[in-house]
Amino acid sequence: MTTTTDIRKGIAIVHKNQTWVVTYAQFVNPGKGAAFTRVKLKNLQGGGNAEVTYKSGEAVETADVQYKKCQYMYNDGTNYHFMDNDNFEQFSLEKEAIGDYAQIMKDGTDCYAMYIEGTPVSIQLPPKMDFLVTFAEPGVKGDSATGAIKDCVIETGLKVKVPLFVNEGDIIKINTEDFSYVSKAN
């Protein structure tokens, strides 16, 4: 058991006797009335999504899950294939189980697989990952003082908003939760 203050994206909870993973969590303190946590859930057993609002401090049952380190290998158009780092067994997950992460999956990425009752059902990526910029329009000289941004395309094909000083060929860090620019990689 946990309380609503511990709910965050990526954890698994039990809701209506089924296991769900939290895809979005927002704490709201309206000023008038009691605080609450708004949560979006994805059902890991039967599929489907739900939105739930919990009162602040309400008890929530966490699901019995295991996390194992794995490595993303490739996708075949339908499934995403991974290898367990401990026993080198391979497993696959459907694109639906990968969710938005499909936009930033690149071969060789280390991640964690979430297992329920011995079966892999979802993955979690590191909070930040490095990507090669494959396309970026040149920044206009003199615009750097305004904090202006431009679009670039990273190696997976995802468009990302970046500062003007980022150029094609640079390696940048991306936040894997919202796909936003963090910094240039060292």
Task: Characterize the structure shown.
The protein is an all-beta fold and 186 residues long. It folds into three domains: 2-60, SH3 type barrels (Roll), CATH 2.30.30.30; 66-124, OB fold (Dihydrolipoamide Acetyltransferase, E2P), CATH 2.40.50; 128-184, Nucleic acid-binding proteins (OB fold (Dihydrolipoamide Acetyltransferase, E2P)), CATH 2.40.50.140. It contains one helix and 16 strands. The strands form four sheets. A five-stranded antiparallel beta sheet has the order 9-8-7-10-11. Strands 14-13-12-15-16 form a five-stranded antiparallel beta sheet, with no helix packed on it.
Beta strand count? 16
Unreliable residue stretches: none
Helix and strand succession?
EEEEEEEEEHEEEEEEE
Number of domains: 3
Which bin fits the share of residues in helices? under 10%
Mean pLDDT: 86
Number of helices: 1
Q: What's the architecture of the largest domain in CATH terms?
A: Roll
Beta-strand content: over 45%
Q: What is Rg?
A: 19 Å
In what order do the strands lie side by side in the largest sheet? 9-8-7-10-11
Q: In the CATH scheme, what's the topology name of the largest domain?
A: SH3 type barrels
> What top-tier CATH class of the largest domain fits best?
Mainly Beta
The chain-level structural class is mainly beta
For the sheet with most strands, the description reads: 5 strands, antiparallel
**End-to-end CA span:** 40 Å
Overall form: flat
